[in-house]
Structures are given as C-alpha cells and as structure tokens.
Amino acid sequence: MHIVLGVLCLFIALLAVVSVVRQMKFKNMFALLFSALTAVVFGFFSIATIISEISG
C-alpha cells in the first residue's frame, strides 16, 4: 500500500518540476521558491518510500 503513496508523491514532484520551469519563464521568484521546495521535498519522500518498499 505504501508503494501507491510513493507513486502519488512522485507524480506531485513531477508536477512541481513543471511548475518550476513555468515560473522561471514568468520570472516569479516567490512561486519559483515554493515550487522548487515542493519538488525537492516530495521527490525525496517518494524516492525514499519506493526504495523502502522495494528493499523490504
């Protein structure tokens, strides 16, 4: 069941990366900061969850 959580977090991290690219185009630094922080945090937790489930 945790693998589903990891995949959902990975999907959110990918959407945050798309948002980072868009905010760089618009030069919106405040939104860029929050998008980058979201991408890092959700990316870390998704990778850690998936590795934890695979390794047992």
From TrEMBL:
Keywords: Membrane, Transmembrane, Transmembrane helix. The chain crosses the membrane at residues 29-51. InterPro entries: DUF2759 (IPR024490). It comes from the Bacteria. Pfam families: DUF2759. This is DUF2759 family protein. It comes from Oceanobacillus halophilus.
